[in-house]
Amino acid sequence: MIAPAVAIALLVSLLASVSQAWPAQPRTGAALQRRIIVGNDFGCRSKFRPVVVLHGLFATRETDLNLLETWLRLQGYCTFGLTYGAPPLLISVGGVAAIDDSAAQIRNSINEVLTKTGASKVDIVGHSEGGFQALYVAKREGLSARIGKIVALAPPTSGAAYANLVGLGDLLRPAVSVQILTSGCLGCVGLLPGSTEVASLNDGPVAQPGNDVTVIATRYDKVVTPPGTASFIQESGVYNVFVQDVCSADLTTHNGMALDPNVWNLIHNALTGDNGREFTCVPYISPV
User: Fold this and answer.
1) What is the biggest distance separating any 2 CA atoms in the chain, rounded to whole angstroms?
2) Based on C-alpha coordinates, what's the Rg of the chain?
3) What mean pLDDT value characterizes the chain?
4) Does residue 170 have a pLDDT over 50?
5) Sheet strands (E) in 185-252
6) DSSP class of 189
7) Which terminus, N or C, of the chain has the lesser number of Cβ atoms within 10 Å?
8) Which has the closest alpha carbon to 219: 211, 230, 209, 208?
9) May I ask which residue range the UniProt record assigns to the signal sequence (predicted)?
10) Among residues 147, 111, 148, 151, which one has the least CA distance to residue 131?
């Protein structure tokens, strides 16, 4: 049996390794994204609802979603976003605050978009933790009536196993949680299977009345595992799809989903209410 102290140290070390690879992009991709940084244009008008984009754990709006946002804007969408859950002294690492604290930030951002655009509802596209948060704020922040469509990319709906490393923490879960908390990632703890936040999301229906929910997963996910099972919502009216069921030559991993043109088309389908629309698939291998 592994000694508790050793298990804690090993788990934290492995989580750090996963965090370095989560949605952060390779150097060339990051450089490209820095050239296309997009802000919030509250004067933007579109035939579509405003789209709020939510990044993943350890990421920012710019590092995770910039290319997706740029593509959506080229399709005629008005996109809005923020970097949520970042420590004041480390704003380049988002999503690490407590889930409820991040949810409150997201709620305020959504209300700002609604107020400044005059829209009655927004749609949300979220990657990883951002997908979890999209579902969470609709249910737990009382925003379901102000949200139309939710598109979640590999969300840890049932909790994130962090590449199957969480089992080590079961040897001493409370102490592991304390260790992670002191290392500055309350959000990590909130996304663990069995956490209070995950239990709260799954207490009763996840998808709320009036929300059209699409969940997109990849069979090559090594972070939110088991792929699909940890993400999909088995409820009436929810559209669950593996990108490989539509594009068999797509080898995207968890990290690469927000950069994947095939995923972008699936998002477009969901936002236009046309899930199942055919499009030209392209072979894709995640850069990370």
Assistant:
1) 60
2) 18
3) 85
4) no
5) 212-217, 239-242
6) H
7) N
8) 230
9) 1-21
10) 151
